[in-house]
Task: inverse folding
């Protein structure tokens, strides 16, 4: 199968007539990640796929040793948005039309230091109803790329040059929006927009924040995106912590529904976390949760209850970029599942 060079945003072309027996007739993707020349495969590059018209968990998987990844698409997916990341480098975003029983070849050349670009990811809602706004046209003023929001009001603009840009949003029935957004090299900027229906005399509401690189490359935002759809997990950002200004992490985590902080002294310096939704028959009032710090387990369920390890000793609240809270095994994503995770997991990411 030949690869389709994709230097700019657009649709990849399908390899006509190729049956996808392994996918049981579903659409399939053969993705190849290379350097900018298209000659050198990039194994372990992170490939990201969002099914733009199907409610399915986004894909976030590493490329194989040959820089490729084969995926079977959901049966009800008609299009997909795909890009790849490798270190600080990123490919252009590609929109792919999917066809049942056909493999679509997608080439994702990654540019590194010679191209300074970032990405804008956003969500569009109706200010008066809170409902997502689909089919809104989103672009960066002065750039040719125009994308439309999907039925959940989401959009992705990749390959945006670093610097200050004016974001343009247009949708019939809504006031046109222009808003300045900062784009940083190799980093995603999140934008949440509340559009105002015409002819209401109100101002649109726009909130934008630059994603911390550690959270971006470790999948925090993909898990939060899916968690919002399914109600799985609680996600705390640095902005949430700044608004609350807790002196200790347990002050913040103890306010999460279904989580209890147990401390062995009045100062709260020696604390463990428990899922109050579960019981292991040994811990009073809950089941001890495991704690991860930057993807490594630091406090495991079943460890001695001497409080030698303490949540509050791990990191200061001001050093935290984000926290994921999974209160039972049913909420856990695959990367944090294990024998010591059945009572839930708290994942802490530093800045």
Result:
């Amino acid at each position: 199968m030949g690869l389709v060079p994709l230097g700019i945003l657009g649709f990849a072309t399908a390899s006509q007539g190729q049956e996808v027996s392994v996918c049981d007739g579903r659409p399939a993707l053969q993705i190849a990640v290379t350097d900018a020349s298209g000659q050198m495969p990039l194994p372990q590059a992170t490939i990201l796929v969002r099914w733009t018209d199907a409610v399915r968990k986004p894909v976030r998987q590493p490329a194989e040793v040959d820089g490729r990844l084969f995926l079977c698409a959901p049966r009800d997916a008609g299009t997909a948005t795909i890009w790849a990341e490798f270190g600080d480098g990123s490919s252009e975003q590609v929109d792919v039309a999917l066809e049942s029983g056909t493999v679509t070849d997608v080439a994702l050349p990654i540019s590194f230091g010679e191209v300074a670009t970032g990405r804008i990811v956003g969500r569009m809602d109706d200010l008066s109803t809170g409902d997502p706004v689909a089919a809104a046209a989103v672009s960066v003023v002065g750039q040719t790329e125009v994308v439309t929001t999907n039925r959940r009001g989401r959009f992705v603009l990749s390959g945006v040059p670093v610097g200050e840009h004016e974001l343009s949003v247009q949708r019939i029935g809504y006031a046109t929006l222009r808003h300045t957004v900062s784009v940083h090299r190799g980093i995603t900027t999140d934008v949440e927009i509340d559009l105002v229906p015409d002819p209401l005399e109100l101002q649109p509401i726009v909130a934008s924040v630059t994603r911390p690189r550690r959270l971006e490359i470790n999948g925090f935002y993909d898990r939060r995106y899916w968690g919002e759809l399914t109600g799985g997990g609680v996600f705390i950002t640095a902005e949430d912590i700044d608004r609350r200004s807790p002196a200790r992490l347990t002050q913040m985590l103890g306010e999460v529904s279904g989580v209890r902080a147990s401390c062995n002294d009045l100062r709260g310096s020696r604390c463990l976390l428990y899922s109050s939704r579960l019981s292991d028959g040994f811990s009073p009032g809950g089941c001890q949760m495991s704690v991860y710090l930057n993807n490594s387990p630091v406090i495991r369920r079943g460890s001695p209850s001497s409080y030698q390890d303490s949540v509050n000793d791990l990191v200061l609240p001001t050093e935290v970029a984000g926290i994921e809270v999974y209160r039972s095994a049913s909420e856990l994503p695959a990367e944090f599942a294990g024998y010591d995770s059945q009572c839930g997991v708290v994942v802490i990411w530093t800045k």
